[in-house]
Design brief:
The chain is of the alpha/beta class and 512 residues long. It has two domains: 281 residues, Rossmann fold (3-Layer(aba) Sandwich), CATH 3.40.50.720; 214 residues, N-(1-d-carboxylethyl)-l-norvaline Dehydrogenase, domain 2, CATH 1.10.1040. The protein is built from 21 helices and 14 strands. A six-stranded parallel sheet has the order 6-3-2-7-8-9, sandwiched between helices. The radius of gyration is 23 Å and the shape is globular. The structure holds D-mannonic acid. D-mannonic acid binds next to α9 and α13.
């Protein structure tokens, strides 16, 4: 390899000359044909589904190359394309690094400016499986109900211009219409995002558009397209310049599509397919009848811990998850919240002890080599808190259980957005579809925590009216928001942690 300063870029020509410690694709990439399309090629996809597919190709070579499509930034042609879609996947656990070149992506397509390139791929007969990581908000649904948000500007656009769609549901509906009108081959659309019953939500939003389109599309979809739900798991934060440098220094080549993740990975997929299916179950994924217990476990424990640590972490001055959880107070808080309030809401999961799962999840978050920024996890919190916090809160209230701890990160999400408003000094920059609305509430309401919390709780797209009216929930959220907006938010967390939770069980659980 060339000397430092003029490092060679990763590409097929370099594969034979890479250091032996780097694992490489063992199958014939030149013979690989596309069969899967993936929408949303970010760090998570490169570290998760693309790795499972790489494993599968090595074990059972078949026509399952991945065509990666981005309909939002970043552009893929500038990074992956120039490397012929090869990239380095690092698994890091504190000081240990395991590196591997992934080869399962065969082609990347940028479709940010127009849906056409994406539609060409999705409508082609060779594609039988579409996986998606388009973030929670990509589904254009109303978080509290799961229904398509007909007021969403992209949906308004797509209903008026169905042949030139912009949204994920609009693009999928149009691609299915093109399939129906041409070869008619079936297809599976597999959501890999952290939304509850993600297959059901995806089916809902696509069907809602198809029904409005008419022409028998909704019926054709019902007969030919499967929308399995799935639970995916691996912590893989956004790649940083330091990650690119690690590869360059350690292995001597440049790779602009490096991805870094933790060792742990899991993929549980509902056994509900149309057409041929990649046998990911041969390489560690599970095909099951019902994903719900797995998805509750993951979103209410691992994801809820991340969300809790991100809001309390930012308020406490911590940059990353691993730093927030290294704080004894925050570690105690999140463990108590999960063990005392969340665990009783979980459904039994065969072969998994819930308390062991909590400990394992918390241990994963202590990994100092995974630099997951609290602000990254805090992004789009309005789309995450329903499944991570509000659904377990609702289950607790139904059984008369305490919600004193689970209410704190809900107020944490509010405090995070409130403190980003000009009235509260623009403490940090935020990205959340509800940020402007919460900032307007903060500007109009000022520092009165009760008025602030009440106005935010009236946001029906997030807080369903029954929950928002619950007296116990309101009281806890108001108190927590007041504490978290004070000069010393950690003093409030300390106070909540110090109080015996049983005392709170006696508070009224009636609706206001
Ligand atoms: C994180 C997830 O940013 C976030 O919302 O909570 O990306 C999380 O790291 C993954 O779900 C882990 O599987």
């Amino acid at each position: 390899m060339s000397a430092a300063g003029s490092r060679e870029n990763l590409g097929p020509a370099l594969l034979d000359r890479l250091p032996a410690e780097l694992r490489k694709p063992t199958y014939d990439r030149a013979a690989l044909q596309p069969g899967i399309a993936h929408i949303g090629v970010g760090a998570f996809h490169r570290c998760h589904q693309a790795e499972y597919t790489d494993d599968l190709l090595a074990k059972n070579f078949d026509r399952w190359g991945v065509v990666g499509i981005n309909i939002r930034p970043p552009r893929l042609t500038e990074t992956l394309d120039s490397q012929r879609c090869l990239y380095t996947r690092l698994i890091r656990q504190n000081d240990e690094v395991e590196a591997r070149i992934i080869g399962s992506i065969v082609r990347v397509v940028d479709s940010q400016d127009s849906a056409e390139p994406a539609l060409d791929v999705l409508a082609s007969p060779e594609i039988e499986m579409v996986t998606l990581t388009v973030t929670e908000k990509g589904y254009c649904h109303i978080p509290a109900s799961g229904a398509l948000d007909l007021d969403h500007s992209d949906i308004v656009h797509d209903l008026a211009n169905p042949e030139a769609p912009r949204s994920v549901p609009g693009i999928l509906a149009r691609a299915l219409e093109l399939r129906m009108a041409s070869h008619g081959r079936p297809m599976t659309l597999l959501s890999c995002d952290n939304i509850p019953a993600n297959g059901v939500i995806l089916a809902n939003v696509v069907r809602a558009i198809a029904e409005r389109r008419g022409s028998g599309l909704a019926d054709w979809i019902a007969a030919n397209v499967a929308f399995p739900s799935g639970m995916v798991d691996r912590i893989a934060p956004a790649t940083t310049a330091a990650d690119l440098e690690t590869v360059e220094k350690r292995f001597g080549y440049r790779d602009s599509a490096v991805v870094v993740g933790e060792q742990f990975r899991q993929w549980v997929i509902e056994k509900k397919f149309a057409g041929r299916v990649p046998r990911w179950d041969l390489v560690g994924a599970s095909f099951v009848e019902d994903v719900t217990p797995f998805e509750h476990l993951k979103m209410r424990v691992l994801n809820a811990a991340q969300t809790t640590l991100c809001y309390l972490g930012v308020l406490g001055g911590f940059e990353h998850t691993f730093e927030a959880i290294a704080d004894p107070l925050l570690a105690t808080f999140v463990r108590r919240m999960l063990m005392e309030e969340t665990l009783p809401t979980l459904m039994p999961v065969p072969g998994i002890s819930p308390s062991a799962y909590v400990e394992q999840s918390l241990a994963r978050l202590t990994n100092t080599a995974i630099h997951h920024r609290n602000h990254q996890i805090a992004t789009d919190g309005s789309q995450k808190i329903v499944q991570r916090l509000l659904n377990p809160i609702r289950d607790r209230l139904a059984k008369g259980g305490s919600i004193a701890l689970l209410s704190v990160p809900v107020a944490g999400w509010m405090a995070y957005l409130v403190k980003a408003s000009s009235r509260f000094g623009n403490c940090w920059q935020v990205s959340d579809p509800f940020a402007a609305r919460i900032a307007a509430i903060a500007d109009a309401t000022g520092a009165d925590s009760k008025a602030l919390a009440e106005a935010i709780l009236a946001t029906e797209a997030i807080f369903d009216p029954e929950l928002a009216a619950n007296a116990m929930f309101r009281a806890h959220v108001i108190a927590a928001l007041d504490g978290l907006l004070s000069r010393d938010p950690m003093a409030f967390v300390r106070h909540v942690c110090a109080e015996p939770i049983d005392a709170r069980l006696k508070q009224p659980a009636r609706s206001a």
